[in-house]
Amino acid sequence: MLFPDYRPRRLRQNENFRRMIRETQLSVDNLILPLFSVEGKGVKSPIPSMPGHYQLSVENIVKEGKVARDLGIPAVMIFGIPKKKDSLAMSAYAKNGIVQKTVKALKNKVKDLIVITDVCLCEYTDHGHCGVVQDGIIENDATLDLLARAAVSHAQAGADMVAPSDMMDGRVAAVREALDENGFEITPIMSYAAKYCSAFYYPFRQAAESAPKFGDRRTYQMDPANSLEAIREVTMDMEEGADIIMVKPALAYLDVIFRIRQEIDLPIAAYNVSGEFAMIKAADKLGWLDGNQVMMESLTAIKRAGADMILTYFAKEAASKLASRA
Ligand code: PBG
After folding, report:
1. SS3 for the chain, per residue?
2. CA 271 to centroid of ligand 1, rounded, Å
3. In CATH, what number is assigned to the domain containing residue 183?
4. Position 314 confidence tier, pLDDT thresholds 50, 70, 90
5. pLDDT digit string (tens) for 271-310?
6. Ligand 1 binding pocket mutation candidate from 33, 210, 251 (most atoms within 8 A of CB)
7. Ligand 1 in contact with 274 (CB < 6 A)?
8. Any atom of ligand 1 within 6 Å of the Cβ of 278
9. Which domain holds residue 260?
């Protein structure tokens, strides 16, 4: 394959040639839209660092769910911001908690939309950590039961899939067992398996009001320097019963996505997180780059690295763009 016998430019000379040899096809089928649900009526509070995203009360989430569905987006991921926080995250597994109410409304009012719920305690604890705290330590095993209760309560409300994001050891097994015991053996688990302790979550923590009040999440989320450890985390979750495994964040961790794609044969999701979204939006606003082009390039790169599904705040914009191309 040496010049002049081989000329890579022959197959780049027009868009039809380029289409024919394109290796990665980003599709609306790959997109999952995250939504933030709050108590109240008629609430639509803009999230400053995430243009186009809002804290929405239930009836507005339903509207947004319909918009997503009409754009062909197959699934949404629900995060809840409760009225009350306490040390045991009681609103996380309350029958009438914010996520439970939201899921019920979506399942009743929006046809043909998969509703996934984030299962974690950080939005519901008064200290903002993802687990139960005792003497300043985030307790692993004491947290498992609460996560399992939250997952079951989401399934009871009608969630199509649950997504534990807390990074406690053993939580996939705990959630799987609790779901099965309660008759939800058909409810899949999307596990945030390789979730890094990342500064890219900053806008999300404003949006979900879930920043830790003391310390940080380094004792449970992964060290950004590690990728062998990601394989161990993923293997563990797979053995515990995860149906889909997630890598998060996405763009700074494309090597991790690629590596895991080589190691396992489960579907892989990647979370294009809030900070990744905010950076592109901010640069676009300043006129420093073309946000639309960078969005499509980023999402294509995440897919090229090996992700089957992409959770992204760009889901609606990308879906419109993909539709206008077709
Ligand atoms: C909850 C959770 C977080 C995100 C998703 N689920 C925040 C965190 O771990 O602090 C981040 C998503 C994003 O930044 O878009 N544990």
Report:
1. CCCCCCCHHHHHCCHHHHHHHCCCCCCHHHEEEEEEEECCCCCEEECCCCCCCEEEEHHHHHHHHHHHHHCCCCEEEEEEECCCCECCCHHHCCCCCHHHHHHHHHHHHCCCCEEEEEECCCCCECCCCCCEEECCEEECHHHHHHHHHHHHHHHHHCCCEEEECCCCCCHHHHHHHHHHHCCCCCCCEEEEEEEECCHHHHHHHHHCCCCCCCCCCCCCCECCCCCHHHHHHHHHHHHHCCCEEEEECCHHHHHHHHHHHHHCCCCEEEEECHHHHHHHHHHHHCCCCCHHHHHHHHHHHHHHHCCCEEEECCHHHHHHHHHHHC
2. 9
3. 3.20.20.70
4. very high
5. 999 999 999 999 999 999 999 999 999 999 999 999 999 9
6. 210
7. yes
8. no
9. 24-325
Q: Considering its fold, how many domains does the chain have in total?
A: 1
Annotation says 248 is catalytic: yes
Question: Which residue of the set 84, 101, 109, 248 is catalytic?
Answer: 248
In a domain, 255, yes or no: yes
Assess whether the C-beta atom of 81 lies below 6 angstroms from ligand 1: no
Concerning whether 195 is annotated as a catalytic residue, the answer is: yes
pLDDT per position as a tens digit, 86-145: 999 999 999 999 999 999 999 999 999 999 999 999 999 999 999 999 999 999 999 999
Asked whether residue 6 is domain-assigned, the answer is no
Confirm whether 19 is domain-assigned.
no
Which of 85, 101, 195, 303 is flagged as catalytic?
195
